[in-house]
Structure formats: structure tokens, C-alpha cells
Amino acid sequence: MSGQALPLEITDLRTTLFTRRGEMKAVDGLSLSVGAGETVALVGESGCGKSLSALSVMRLLPDPPARIVGGQVKLNGRDIVPLPEEAMLGIRGKEIGMIFQDPISSLNPVTTVEKQIVEVLMTHTELGRGQARVRAHELLELVGMPDAARRLDAYPHQLSGGMCQRVVIAMAIACSPSVLIADEPTTALDVTVQAQVLALLKKLQADAGMAMIFITHDLGVVAETADRVVVMYAGRKVEEASVDELFENPLHPYTVGLIGATPTPGAERAERLADIPGMVPPLNALPQGCAFAPRCKRVMDRCLTEKPALTVPGPGRLVACFAAQGG
Amino acid sequence: MQRFEFPRFEFVGRFARNRGALVGACLILVVALMAVFASVFFPTDPLRIVGLPELWPGEDPEFPLGTDSLGRDILSMIVHGARATLLIGLFASAVATIIGVGVGAIAGYFGGWVDEISMRVAELFQTIPNLIFVLTIVVILGSTLTNIVIAIGIVSWTPIARMTRAEFLSLRDREFVQACRSMGMSDLRIIVSEILPNALPPVIVLSSLVVAGAILFESAVSFLGLGDPNVASWGRLVGDGRQLIRSSWYICAIPGIAIMITVLCLNLVGDGLNDALNPKLRDR
Amino acid sequence: MSLLSLRDVRVQFNTAGGVVRAVNGVSLDLAVGETLGLVGESGCGKSTLGKAIMKLVPVSGGAIVVEGVDIAPLNRAQLTDMRRKVQMIFQDPYGSLNPRSTVGRSVAQPMVLAGWKPEATAERVETLLRWVGLPSDAKQRYPHEFSGGQRQRIGIARALALSPKLIICDEPVSALDVSVRAQVINLLEDLKSQFGVSYLFISHDLSVVEHIADRVAVMYLGMLFEVGGRDQIWKSPQHPYTRALLAAAPIANPKLARARQRTVLQGELPSPLNPPPGCPFNSRCPMAQDRCRVEKPVLRPVANGAQAACHFV
Lengths: 327, 284, 313
Known about the structure:
Chain A is of the alpha/beta class.
């Protein structure tokens, strides 16, 4: 690594939910770095903490109940966790953009597409209204909005889900942020539209050299988009590897289970899917040892009492499992 | 028919979290106990003349709240009046709830022209000023307790019908209702045993507020001298005292305060029920 | 004889914006013991078709034949027999169970409606819960105490109650997490081999359909574009829409994903209120010609042994 700071470097991030039922460690010591032009997929099932991690990075946590209780989030070398909210206003949308799962509710229903993009531009750049409007048009063209000039005056409800997501993407990249966080950006979209949006995100990222965190539960989407994959379970990172290595040689039993549970057309057809028994434990009732132990096929005595730390089984890989380390 | 069940402890806990509702519920309980045990506390007829007229509260320790223009014990009348007032409130609310839930459920479940007609009728009822409507019915049917209760029920059912209809509209297309239909369950059974238990919580909240409204209506009717002459409700006490409002204002004020506190408490209880029953607020 | 035969089934809704032909002339056969996957994008009418077979939406034309009896013209009272043969599993595990009914009561409903004795019903509920892998104390509990996957099992138990021959599965695993989804898919397959039940499996997830279905029907804007065996469809898709759909579906294998050619289909589904004339796909089809804008194609046998509705294959 050169002396230049990475676009995004998360160290030991801890986010806790303070609820009536007690404190829940929703994100428990997540470390993650993303290089320029790199896509890191954050994978896991509902409740694993992947979305809260993204909201922590954006400092958009719903407080109460959620609060960052420790760790660093370095954006281009600067730790943003201690920054006051006013400082974050200048960072969100400018240095770091976010795309949410539901495109229609991410947009203001009573304002035209053009005004929403112009507002983002005028908040973060020196552009005047006229220039911002020209730029808004360019951005819509850039995100492949069909008939862009006409859509500028449209209201969100007049657009389809796919088009709304394009507008959201246009707003997210309007100020050329160095980091883009996409939280399940295609989950609400149809297959053919999903393919369009994935192709668009890939192209935009390659052109601008953005660092991207791509949050998804869909291993198919991971295989299509990611360079590196981080698998999360119950608030902790359990495995990290390059996308090829992860699918070819998954080490953590949970990753093995996830891949086995996903049907893959074109590959050898398995008679039965390899399901993972049981379900994700609630965050307020995590087992004492490894959170995955109750569902794990390779569980050992040690797993029940001790939380496995992340170890390095090979270059560029991390895994938190006693069995994968060979006991 | 199936029982309507809540996870009870959770329900009580959520209700008690709302301090106002807790205070309201306690005061309502006191009023209710007063009503139930009125004849124990004051075994004699409250309308009997027992002392000097127009004794101010505190003037004679035998009559802590004083006496009225005829020399009747105000405390005794308040305690006995609680019974009439609460009963009128509860029964009128029950009448309104039965009509409202019935109309709303049918309108919301079947939709189409049934819905159209029901809602037009409801609008018709809403366009007539409520108090004038109640007075008209009472004047036509006669000033008996039953007629007053029915009259108040008839003017108060529309909000309950609208609420029930809205709940049914949102519930009738839920998948569990479709599952019932795909099993061949009859419409009546779906309405009564599947949708209704889910639609009731907000309706219960509204019904508790209708009790408060009914008490106010009855007070107004009695104040105007159209109440049942055989029943000493709080409203009638206010009405009886109004000629002396310049000299002995306490005769009006004391039953007035009783009405105010009871209605306020019922509203607080309604809020608490809303907190406890409204699933959107759960787990906050 | 087919277990289920659809002939030119039509469903239309009158909305404020005009008439929506949600199902516009679908003909389809489903054999005993078969799993037929019905795939398509949102708004293509696949769920409406499932509901039409259950008579949950008004059928405006065509025949729905279950074991030789056309149920389309029957009224509710006459459907009792058919209700036993055909049951449904719903998409939303949170919405498909009455939140104020115990699980036992929900599962018992079909038996109660069929007039079973209480003891027999209770015994059956126990058996059903065991089959779908739920503890027997589940019957006293309420749906909110269960996870999504467990609730879907409850829905499956209810659908199995009267030993149906056909279960219509409307996106049964779409709302579930990956690991739980696999559990439910495996359960459905186990139940099929155990009881010989047939499935009409409605889903937008192609990889799931590829895994579970014997035959596949592809739907677009109310009509069928291609019907064929699973391997026929996946190895040699004929209809341009089927090809585009398969090309767009993500594959959970980075090598395969990179190796395949990706032609991203442009545009989005046209509004069902105002579908293009002729072939409804002509607005997005890379092969569209003048004829497609005038003449609506019909399903006919094509090269791979399947049937496709396209003028040019």
C-alpha cells in the first residue's frame, strides 16, 4: 500500500441497539477496507447487521435505539465517527453516497426529479441553479434514463421502480463521491431491470474509480458484481475472501451452507439443496461461544464456549472458525 | 365462536406505561365503585330533603359538598348520579358500537354498492348536528332513560362504522383471509371469526371515547330539561342548579366538575388503550 | 388425464385507468405428480392466474378443468369438492396466518370446515405439524412467536390438511432468507415424494424454479411465451424473452457468471393498462418486426420440443 489513504477504512466498528429488551450488539467489531475502484460485497441474512453497518458508516443510524459505541470509520483518511452532525451534512452526498433498497420511497414524492438532483448539487457544489440544471440533465443521461430530458419534470410516482432507482443513483453520484454504499439496490426490482441496474453501477464505478460497498443477501448478485466478499453472521464478520476464492473454496461452515443453499442453474444439479438447520439467533439471545455453533455441522466443544477470532488462512483471506483453522 | 385473546400481561404492561392512562383508569374505577356502592354509602333516597337549602360546601360538616336549593345533599346526589351517568355512557356506547361495527364490517368486507350505500347513509347521519338530532329523537320518543340511550347511540355510531370499515378494507385482502376463502369458509364466518378480532383494537379505543361523548350528550339533554325526570344524572344536577348560578354557583359547578373529570379520565384511558392496542407503537 | 387443464383462461380487472387484462388467454396442462414452474416479472399475471385457479379472483372467460370438471362456472357451494383437491400456499409468511388465531386453530380450519370430529381434527393437526417439522406445542402458540420459515411451514401444514392433489405455491420462498429458503424448498420436495402431490410453483426467482420444477411456463403481460421441460428451457430457450430472462438472472458462481454472454434487455415492462398491440413483447424485443406489432403470436411447438409464442422461432 502506498502512503495514500484508502477511500474507506472501517476499524472495529461497534454499533449497539439500546432497547427495552436489553442491549443488542448489532455490529460487533467489524473491520473492513475498500480500495478505489473496488467492490466489496457485504453478505448475510436478515438481522446479520449488514444494513446497520452501512447506516453506521453513513452516520444515519436511527437513534434511539441504535448508536455507534466504538471503532473508527475513516473516509479518505479522516475518522468520521466523532464528527458533529453538521459536519456530516457536508460529507453525506459529497464524499459518500448511498443507494437504498426501495427506490420509490427514497425520493420525495412531491418534488420533480430535476429539483431533487439540483438540490443535491447546490448543497455540495458551487454550481448555480442554471448550471446545476444542466448537470442534472447530464446525470440522468449518464445513468441511462430513457428520454432523460422529458423525465426531468416527472414526479417519482410517474416513473417505474427501475427509473426511480436510476434517479437515486444519479443523486448518489452527483458530486462524484469516493465511496458509494448500495444497500440491496436491486432487491425490489425485476430480474431484467436488476440486470440493467447492476450493469449501470459497474460502469459508473469503473469510470469514476469509486469504492463501493454492495450489501445483498443474494449470492447470485454477489458473484456478478463483487471483487471481494465479506460474510457477516449475527453482527460479526465470519469470512472474507476474493469472490473467486469464496465460491470455489469457502472456509467458514456458514459460507459453505449459504452457497449450498443457493440453487445454481447451469451448475451440476443437486438433488437436494444443502440447507442450514435452524435459524438466525435473535441478537439478544446469542449463544456464549460462536454464534453459528447451534446450526453448524462442524461444531466442536470449543465452539460452544469461546468466540473464534479472525485468522488468516491464506493471502487476502480471513475466517473466524475453529474448525476451518484445523481445530 | 372463538375467544378474543391478547397476550394479557404484555397488554397491561403497555397500558400502564402511559401514566395519564393509569391515573385515568384509577379515577374511573373510583367513580365506578361509587356508582356500584351508592346505596351502601347513602342508603336514603338522594332526592329527599335532608337539611337547610343552599348550604355552601364546608358550611355544615354533615353535608361536605353542601345542599341545593331544596336542601338535598349534593354529595349523595353526586354518588347516586354516578350510576345513572356511567350506565347511560356505557349503554349508549354499546348501542353505537353494535350499529357501527355491524355497518362498517359489512361495508368494508363486501365493498361495491353495499359500501357505497352504507357510507352515504353514514354521511347523512353526520350532516345533522348531533345535539339537535339527539334532542329531536328524545322529544319524539319521550324522555325515558332507554330512549336517551338509543338516541345517543344513533348519533354516535358513524365514526365507529368508518373506523371498522377502514380496518376491514385493509384486512380483507390479506393473505390469511384469502386462505380462508380458498378453504371455502363462508363470508359471515370470515367476518366474525377471522377479520373482526383483528379489527377490534382501534374500535375499542374509539368506543371508550364514545362513552365520554355520550356522557356529555346526556348532560346536555338533562341540562335542557329533557332528561328522564326519574333519574338524577349529573347533567340534571347541573340543569337544576342553573337558576341559582349567580348566587350559589357551586350547585352547578360540583356536578360539572364531576362530569369534566370523568370525561377527561375516559379520554386518558382511550389514549392508553390506543398505546396498548396499536401494534405500530409496539416494541418502541 | 391432466390433473389441471387451463383453456384460454382470462381474468380482467376494471380499474380507474381502464381495463387490465391480467390473464389474457392462458392454456396450460399440469400432469399428476408434476411440478410446473410459472415464472415472469412482476405484473405479468402469474399470481393472478394462481388465484384464478383457486377462484379467488373472478374468471372472465375460459375453462379451468380440475380432474375433468370445469370449475370456472361453479359457485362457491359447488366448489367444496375442488377445495379438497387444490390448495394454496401464500407468499407472505407474516400475512398468511391470522395473527389472533393460534397455530393449531389455523391449521385445523380446513378440517373444521369439512366437518371433521374434534378428536380427529386434533390428531390430524398433530400429524401435519410433525410432517412439516414443527414441535407439537406449536399449536397453542401465536404466529408472531415464529420465524418466517416456521410460519411458512405452518402455511404448508394447513395446505396439506385435506391431502390435496395440487398445491398452488404463490412465491412461497420469496420472503425468506437463503438458508431458510433451502429448508422450505427441501420440505416441499420431500412432501412431494412422500404424498405424490403436484405443485404449480409460481416464482420470479429463476434459480429456484430451475431447481424445483419439472416443466416451466414463462409468462409476460398476461400471456404465456414459452412452455417446456426444465432442461429444454434452460439449455435451449427459444423465445427471445425467455433468453433475455435467463441471461439477466444472476448466477451464484463467479466463473459461470463471467463466462456467459450478457445481453441486457433494454426497457421495462409496459403498463398492463396499455399493452403494445400485437405481441406484447414487441416494445423490448431485439427481433421485433412489423408483423409483431400487428399480429399476436400463439403458442405452437418449436424446435426444442417445447412450445413458444413467437412468429420467428
